[in-house]
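thought: fold this chain, then report.
action: predict
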Amino acid sequence: MTSLYDRDDKVLSRLQKLRFFPLALVGGKGSYLTDEAGRQLLDLSASWGAASLGHSHPALVAAVSKAVANQAGASVLSATNETIVSLGERLLDLVPGANDRRVWFGHSGSDANETVVRALTAATGRPRIISFTGAYHGGTAGSMAVSAHSVQTHAEKAEGLISLTYPDPYRLTEQDQDGASILHCLEERFAADAPPSEIAAVFIEPIQSDGGLIVPPPGFMKSLCTLCRKHGILVVSDEVKVGLARTGRFSCFEHEGFTPDIVTMGKGLGGGLPLSAAIGPAEIMNHAASFSMQTLHGNPVCAAAGHAVLDVIRADGLMTNAVETGSYLVACLRQLMQRHTLIGDVRGRGLAVGVELVAPGGSNEPAARAAAKLVYRAFELGLVHYYVGMHSNVLEMTPPLTLSAPEVDEAIEILDRALLDVVSDRVPDTVLEGFEGW
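observation:
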């Protein structure tokens, strides 16, 4: 019988594949996935954070089943529905910001960020955007245009895009531990080739996720926002992967001591269903009717899933769990680091954790091949996670927000064995054939 993965290869477009190993799924429950062979795999990715409540959460199942059984249309374009309106009201209450704001709903973080870019430049009349090298704001033309990740070299960039270096504490020099040189560079650009009057906004990730799960130095983001606001430049916080309770607070920017003008959400907002949001000032978000719309935007079934996610985050104390279980995960990973020199750094907040792999010898040279082999071997042993970063050498862990301490113990045991197998050369290069990853 032909395997599910082989069938996939013959049917589905390669354009949408980012594969690391032959994962072929038939189900899932909680923090575990079920593959075609019936294996139970511990999931430390949650589909890049999208399955925020884990798999088949009863509250999500109940909410979606109820919504689809009496479906209030399929869209918010030409009719409203109570489910999407009340979800917008809840988000306005949960996310701090100016009083007169509006919520735009979409399918993904990509379309949310694209919409914000288009609305900002149109409403302000300022054509330029600031973002960071390593930023991944999405996979649509407009969101890629303000990104600067190494996997998107094929994408056309926005005219006049200003790319700043994201400050990485693991690699900053002793003379610049707070990233002040980056702010100084921006001020020089303001005085030279990038007049602030041309710049609509700065896009930030309060943790740079696909760029390597990098947590910025304390105070850097606040100083950046203060500098930009002196010149009327708005601040957009991309919370698509690291927001929605993942870091122990509802919004990740809350750790940084500032409030952005616009917040974008995606991934975990729908608990695994396609749902995104952008929240910002009415003068931006109401710029023009029919400006950014797709037929299924505001779908009440997806909105019901969003309500379920918010309900469970509150009722089950998932922000507290992110802090406690995330701290335990980091502590266990740092114990692994003491035994395995392949691990150069462990970092993160809550349940957004990165493990940077480096070559032996203390050079901090990225160990990309080792990262690819490690996630493959961990998969063989029953653990699902992937790698990210500009050099493809950072293990990313964005598990379900319901992850437990015993599940952390299981993951650490598998990672310990996988690390030993990789450094002992027991994982052949041939296993990576056909799995390009990032």
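thought: worth noting. The longest strand covers residues 343-349.
final: tokens above.
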